[in-house]
Design goal:
Rossmann fold, about 150 residues, binds 1,3,4-trihydroxy-5-OXO-cyclohexanecarboxylic acid, five-stranded parallel sheet, alpha/beta
Length: about 150
């Protein structure tokens, strides 16, 4: 099973960025934990981070052609603004899980709106960096069930 892990803008700053909200782990550390869990679950995880909307759109759009079975995405601030990323997720027709480190629904009003959630299989938010691990477990289970049916 091949999973694409996409991280959006400013997530390269995890570890130093607002640690009271996002915790003290770096993105590299989180990706390392996701890849380790992937090995346990039989999933090969490829991580990609960009601050640029178009690059994220390109990467999602190519995911099926590149042989990925599913996508985990933390679109970060683009969650609340990007029709282009939403359309890319809808277009690629791969199962996708939206992830947030913080509980976006308990924060500012503008974070309560997600352009991307309606085209994702599901959303996991508010569990700190463990949100990524929960997303991987959920996505692997979902893909395995789909393959069996
Ligand atoms: C975030 C929540 C977003 O609202 C914010 O813009 C981020 C990070 C999260 O993981 O909690 O950059 O996606």
């Amino acid at each position: 099973m091949k999973i694409l892990l996409v991280n959006g803008p400013n997530l390269q700053l995890l570890g130093v960025r607002e640690p009271g909200i996002y915790g003290g782990e770096t993105l590299q550390e989180i990706v390392g934990r996701v890849c380790s869990l992937g090995k346990e679950l039989g999933a090969e995880v490829t991580a990609f981070q960009s601050n640029h909307e178009g690059d994220i759109v390109d990467r999602i759009g190519n995911a099926k052609m590149e042989g990925f079975d599913g996508i985990i995405i933390n679109p970060a601030a683009y969650t609340h603004t990007s029709v282009a990323i939403r359309d890319a997720i809808a277009a690629v027709t791969l199962p996708a899980v939206e992830v947030h480190i913080s509980n976006v629904n308990s924060r500012e009003d503008f974070r309560h709106v997600s352009y991307t959630a309606p085209v994702c299989t599901g959303v996991i938010a508010g569990f700190g960096s463990d949100s990524y691990l929960l997303a991987l477990r959920a996505l692997c289970t979902h893909i395995t069930k789909k393959q069996k049916s």
